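Weekly sync, protein design subgroup
Attendees: M.S., D.O., the rotation student, P.L. (late)

Item 1: inverse folding check
M.S. brought a backbone from last month's batch and wanted to see whether the design step gives back something sensible before we order anything. D.O. pointed out we never logged the input encoding, so this time it goes straight into the notes. Structure tokens as presented (427 positions):
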């Protein structure tokens, strides 16, 4: 199997095993442990050594891993991304009976392309809190079997749908069908299923954070395998690229190399484990403690942050949604994103720096700026730049169907981005 294909299969396996940020972090901490990274706890004292490899998590949904430089406080080379993706989440008292069916109430998490969640084979995954003997225990859960569906109304009962578009009211039209009405209530059935899965008593279940996910695995597609179709490419593909680069970075670089993957980007990042939190700053400061505060601040001033998040490729059927001079193509290399309103943190200096990195790695690079008459999306780039005062570039691989339940990207874009990140961590 050619290397690109092997890497893509590895990426798709990672995404399939990561229906929620909790699962993504569990997957990545497993890989980091296998690659010789040691787990740290924020509550413990740290004894870091030069060239040591470490990782830690917050809320089991955000992750920071780093390789201490041969001069720990020289500077930091950081890549940031996010672990969360838009989806539908169960409400606390989710189950109810209606018109002969059992249904589950859901909330919308992030900017979901709602119509794509209809008529799909859905299931549930997330974390469950169990009453332990001394203190509550958190367990991850993922139902493999398809459990849920949000059926569309037949066209015969919605004659205008192809002209007017599918209008979905989040409260009325999104709750999936779970079962037909039975003697037991929906919540009771769900708790029994969870207790069977986790081998506990239903009464032990005291907390639930469950999301819906698509049970269809990701796939390589196109006549030459040039595409990937999968959920959560935004932004697990970027996490995967940065992880590969860090775990394979073995040089005795004086700089400390860091990856920071945050939960809650899709809902604004202002949480205890989001990019708006002091998580990364706290970790960088602790890496530098022995050297004193001035050395830490000097190191920050020399540091660099790559904010890695997927970019908007031009859609052939809607090309007028792009500025004609900024139309990133799939399989044509990573995209540098900029915005005068600073929705992306890129400036001429950071853009030129990333471009020269790509030149060294011998990969092409593209540029994106949103049409001047359209609003611009954002990333963790500006938030982290403002928090740390570090020069930042916003980059990412081009994709289509962003925030759909099943997104589309280029199979030939993934390896080049890993190459660029490796160049960064090795240089
Ligand atoms: Zn994203």
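Designed sequence read out in the meeting:
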């Amino acid at each position: 199997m050619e290397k690109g294909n092997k890497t893509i299969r590895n990426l798709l396996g990672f995404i399939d095993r990561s229906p929620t940020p909790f699962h993504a972090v569990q997957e990545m901490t497993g890989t980091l442990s296998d690659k010789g990274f040691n787990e740290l706890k924020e509550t413990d004292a740290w004894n870091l050594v030069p060239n040591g490899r470490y990782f830690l998590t917050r809320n089991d949904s955000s992750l920071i891993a780093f390789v201490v430089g041969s001069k720990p406080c020289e500077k930091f080379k950081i890549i940031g991304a996010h672990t969360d993706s838009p989806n539908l989440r169960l409400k606390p008292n989710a189950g109810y009976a209606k018109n002969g069916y059992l249904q589950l109430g859901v909330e919308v998490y992030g900017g979901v392309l709602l119509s794509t969640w209809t008529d799909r084979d859905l299931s549930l995954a997330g974390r469950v809190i169990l009453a332990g003997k001394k203190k509550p225990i958190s367990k991850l859960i993922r139902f493999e079997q398809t459990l849920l569906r949000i059926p569309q109304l037949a066209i015969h009962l919605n004659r205008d749908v192809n002209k007017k578009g599918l209008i979905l009211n989040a409260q009325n039209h999104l709750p999936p069908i779970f079962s037909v009405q039975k003697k037991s209530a929906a919540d009771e059935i769900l708790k029994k299923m969870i207790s069977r899965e986790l081998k506990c008593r239903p009464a032990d279940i005291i907390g639930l954070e469950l999301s819906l996910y698509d049970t269809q695995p990701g796939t390589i597609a196109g006549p030459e395998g040039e595409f990937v179709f999968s959920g959560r490419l935004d932004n697990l593909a970027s996490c995967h690229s940065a992880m590969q680069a860090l775990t394979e970075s073995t040089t005795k670089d004086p700089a400390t190399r860091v990856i920071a993957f945050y939960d809650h980007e899709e809902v604004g990042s202002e949480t205890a484990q989001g990019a708006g939190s002091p998580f990364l700053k706290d970790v960088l400061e602790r890496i530098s403690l022995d050297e004193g505060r001035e050395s830490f601040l000097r190191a920050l001033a020399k540091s660099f942050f790559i904010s890695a998040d997927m970019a908007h490729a031009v859609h052939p059927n809607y090309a007028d949604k792009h500025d004609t001079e900024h139309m990133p193509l799939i399989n044509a290399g990573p995209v540098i994103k900029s915005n005068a309103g600073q929705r992306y943190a890129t400036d001429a200096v950071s853009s030129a720096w990333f471009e020269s990195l790509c030149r060294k790695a011998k990969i092409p690079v593209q540029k994106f700026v949103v049409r001047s008459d359209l609003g611009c999306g954002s990333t963790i780039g500006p938030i982290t730049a403002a928090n740390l005062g570090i020069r930042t570039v916003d980059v990412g691989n081009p994709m289509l169907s962003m925030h759909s339940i099943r997104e589309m990207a280029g199979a030939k874009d993934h390896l080049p981005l890993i190459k660029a990140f490796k160049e960064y961590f090795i240089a």
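Discussion: DSSP finds eleven helices and 20 strands in the chain. The longest helix spans residues 233-247.
Action: P.L. to compare against the previous round before Friday.
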